[in-house]
Design goal:
single chain, mainly beta, elongated, 1 helix
Length: 197
């Protein structure tokens, strides 16, 4: 019986040392991030040519690459309409991404933040504008599942949701109690370029 007790103590000590060794291997950067990735990202760009400008009505007709024409009403926020000429090229680009960061407790706070901004061409230049917005939702990991790989997140308002993780590697170095920042980014830019001479 004495040998059996000593064996249990030895096994317990080995398990405890293994846990300490595993937790010591956990990599955390200076911002408290233990895992980060971009899940989805795309850029769409479209080109069209200005075929007609009606400055009095504030409309511009553009012809897309597929040959289809569209007439656009330009609101008062569009400056420099006098700088648009038939033959100019209109370029529109749209960017969207979904990413996440997993941070150790104390390095993030559950909640929702939205930041964004916009800018337009200065007076006298060809018209153009760009804008961007980033929404971050921070939740706490309540549970981690293996089959299938999943996490249960507690949202900023207290509700929980189980989410399947498509890439099991995303769960490496992650622990219950960590905070997940889901980051959704959108950006759009529209410019009018002078026609090629």
């Amino acid at each position: 019986m004495f040998e059996n007790t000593r064996f249990r103590i030895l096994v317990g000590a080995v398990c405890a040392l293994s846990l300490v060794a595993c937790s010591a291997k956990r990599e955390v950067d200076e911002t408290g991030t233990v895992q980060a990735a971009t899940v989805e990202e795309r850029v769409v760009e479209a080109h069209a040519t200005v075929t007609k400008v009606d400055k009095a009505k504030r409309t511009v007709t553009i012809k897309r690459a597929d040959g289809h024409s569209v007439t656009l009403d330009l609101g008062p926020e569009v400056q420099n309409i006098d700088q648009i000429d038939p033959g100019d090229e209109v370029i529109a680009a749209y960017y969207e991404s979904v990413a996440f960061d997993v941070k150790v407790p104390g390095k993030a706070t559950p909640g929702v933040t939205v930041v964004g901004g916009a800018d337009a061409a200065e007076k006298g230049q060809k018209p153009g504008a760009m804008g961007a917005r980033m929404v971050t939702v921070t939740s706490t990991i309540e549970a981690i599942g293996d089959d299938p790989p999943s996490v249960t997140l507690k949202g900023p308002e207290g509700g929980t949701r189980k989410i399947r993780v498509k890439n099991p590697a995303y769960l490496e170095n992650v622990e219950v109690g960590d905070l997940v920042e889901m980051i959704y980014t959108q950006a759009v830019a529209v410019s009018v370029e002078e026609k090629a001479k």
